[in-house]
Amino acid sequence: xxxxxxxxxxxxxxxxxxxxxxFKKLSIHTMQRRPFLAGLGATAAALGSSAWAKQESxxxxxxxxxxxxxLSKNQLAPALAKTTHSRLAAIVTGTPAKAAEWQKQYGxxxxxxYNYENFDRIVDNPDVDVVYVVLPNSMHEEFTIRxxxxxxxxxxxxxxxxxxxxxxxxxxxxKSAGKQLGIGYRCQFEPHHVECMRLAREKVxxxxxxxxxxxxxxxGDPAQWRLRKSLxxxxxxxxxxxxxIQACRYLTGEEPVEIVAQETKxxxxxxxxxxxxxxxxxxxxxxxxxxxxxxYAFNGSNFFTAIGQGGRFGLEAAYGYGGQKGWSSQPxxxxxxxxxxxxxxxxxxFSRAILDGKPFAPAGEEGLKDLLVIEAIYRSIREGKxxxxxxx
Amino acid sequence: xxxxxxxxxxxxxxxxxxxxxxFKKLSIHTMQRRPFLAGLGATAAALGSSAWAKQESxxxxxxxxxxxxxLSKNQLAPALAKTTHSRLAAIVTGTPAKAAEWQKQYGxxxxxxYNYENFDRIVDNPDVDVVYVVLPNSMHEEFTIRxxxxxxxxxxxxxxxxxxxxxxxxxxxxKSAGKQLGIGYRCQFEPHHVECMRLAREKVxxxxxxxxxxxxxxxGDPAQWRLRKSLxxxxxxxxxxxxxIQACRYLTGEEPVEIVAQETKxxxxxxxxxxxxxxxxxxxxxxxxxxxxxxYAFNGSNFFTAIGQGGRFGLEAAYGYGGQKGWSSQPxxxxxxxxxxxxxxxxxxFSRAILDGKPFAPAGEEGLKDLLVIEAIYRSIREGKxxxxxxx
Lengths: 392, 392
Known about the structure:
6-stranded parallel sheet, disordered N terminus, Rossmann fold, 35% helix, Dihydrodipicolinate Reductase, domain 2, homodimer, 2 domains, alpha/beta
């Protein structure tokens, strides 16, 4: 697995997985330097529709956010304001009150506001280059395919979809449209993670022999969509366990071949529809085993530990939006970087890939690979046996 | 599971698992205070057989070490010299050169030296109260039963035997002889472990929800008995994985009911006969899952982490002979104790239980329970499916 990422506004192409120090230095530098454009919304609000379309043009691609939940509100919109090549161009929501609130805050004209029914009209909006699908998992396929049919590039939140089959259809649709499909795996650009990939690849701690990884949290509101199978597809595994799967995959650079998994449900009422806590073991082609856990029932697991022949290294608070903490058993190896805005980085790298006409990764195939692992874990639990992971 | 342990030379009985602070304070204090009796060997060497028998009598029980490998040489003999109620009384070895060396060092008369053939004559030696079986695992059953038939109490190294069936015969034999059978689970008396048991039992971090535990090391010499199935019964799991099993069991106070496990063998030549690296997940009656790993292929895993609703705690360098390091997510909860001699403590507590006529724990049933877990792990690997753990 190799990820080619484009430098942030600096016109160079790097291989993030090879951990080119220049990339880290420059990209972080760029992120730090760029002030939060707090005044933008108020200014834009005073402008009409065509002015809105024009003012942020140039090299900035227009992004439409589909789904205005907390991720869009608290992370993506503020992050877009920090980017170099991206801007908030349109919103798609089923809630008129949310639309009004966003229009006011970001000065979005009526012509750039869609709902789930009239979304397809976005085909006629040249301001929108990218559609970012931030909906509940079960709606990812539909809106990715509709966006592709509308001639837009698609950026899709993780998990890419509820099933591998859905992923395959999404990949095909975007490919047919001649557009790009990126998946929101922000950790793949986060400097602590990138550095750990380098440590693994360059065998700084020798050949990797074992990985422990876990991510979970105590899901609060019992009414949230994450706990509804029809919307989320699954529970903790699909929502946060996927980060631990990602870590195992990008640290090894391999795809797991065999999985055994076990589930527990200590609150069968709250988690009646989706998985609560899962523990599993995955075998990779090199012989490495990875132990993975995920949960919606409690806080406290948010890490990976990689054990090599020559020592150990890992991250704590590994998968949050910021505040990663690296450690290693070698006093000379520090894993310490300034915080970045994960969302600003991933969106701008996607924009930059499109502007440069270069393929972006992680693309749809990466999302598909995780779904194949997730499906194998669920299958192992259901059948009570070791299962092979299907291949792409 | 409750362990009643006897205070070291202080005549009080405590419940180690309830973490009575007095126990910890006093026992550590006692261990620290007792000087290493370095001069004992040289002095005793100058005495004849009957003097040897007499000089360390009184409240000191005589221990016979069966098997003079590195554990006996580097840990047990030095540890016996630090005890209050125990003393080295006899040795049993198949190697005359070793016998000579030990006789010289510890002043052991010919009458107190046995080999594996004439071992049963120990029945006639009133100096020997306890036989400590320190042989390769496959010989534990035979020598435990022979020792019991010779009217001796038996202390047996972990793993108690190769199979649960052997454990059951050992328990029956020692019971029939009206003697006690203790298993060498030194961590059950180690202050850091005892404190973690207390934190778990008293729910200082809330109800335990998940445990991660691992112990492994890189097995050096490819010719060692540990890598021969006929002698060791199994590999890393039986030798060191058992510590992680113990931790999961004594932190929860429960027996696992279902297990899924996976094995990898990256060096099929060196580990042709025994397991190299295993990862598994265990479900407990309360719904808690534990993730466990063990290996003979690499260093770097020697820990447990317990995650409760209110935070995390654990040990690093958890299972070594000394140097345990505790940590917790609550700044106010420190897990820090002076080092103890694990072997001196466990042997003296066994002696003390016998002197007081009280049952010692961990006894044979505890060893049996671990073998039932070990057998379930191997069965899960062999059959590639989730298996139930057999009950005692």
